[in-house]
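Researcher: Re-running this chain for the archive, since the previous output was lost when a drive failed. Same request as before.
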Amino acid sequence: MARVNDAGPFAFVLDTGSSGTTLDDRRIKQLALEPDGPSEEGQGMGGAIDVRLFRLRTFAAGPLALHDLVVPGIPAPSLASHDIAGLAGVDIFGAHLATWRWDRACVFLTASGSQPVGQGWRPVRSRWLKPWKILLPVRIGKASGWGLLDTGAQKSILSPGFARAAGLGGSIAGADTITGVEGRETRFIVHDLRNATFGAWQYRNVKIGVAALPLFDRLGGMDEPLAVIGMDWIADRPFGIDYGSQSVWQKVRAPGR
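Model: Regenerated structure tokens:
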């Protein structure tokens, strides 16, 4: 929940895969915002989109307060449970350690360089392309690659190259669709996986999609072993991202859980 220009509070989706905060058209009109310069090109999971930019005086969420920031006007995700005003991107975290605790429905902010509070945390090897492009190791069968940690994605998707390397051609479980912020609907094939790992997390009997998302070209290429790991895999698994030291922590479940 955040207040924008002292109005609200409004509900935003916290999105580790978004470079910046966005605002939908209804809230732009409600706040009587004027465009700040010409339109620019933004990038969603499914491709490019032209966006108008708007300047906010303040954006305040919990202990965080950003001043004089420019945000794109983009349609907000549709959720049955909340009236969503936009995405809260990683720009709001600054250089903090942001620890995601699903059991407390909260993101805890502490100083960079510290460790998440509690037991069971492990530092995880990562490729830090950008603060909103953090890749962790993914292993499916005998194939290894890299996955984008993306709380803004509802489904986890493999690149065609990763699917071929993992030999998923004959394990089709169905089909589904996703829609990115650019509004394009992308159909993907769903596969059943007996086991997989994402960083320090292990999975048994999970599903994964395969699609040629334009996002993969921005991460390294369609033929590379890449993945977007979304909420269907992240679910209630706690993790921490230290935006100051560029490090990632994952909390590992006790054996048998």
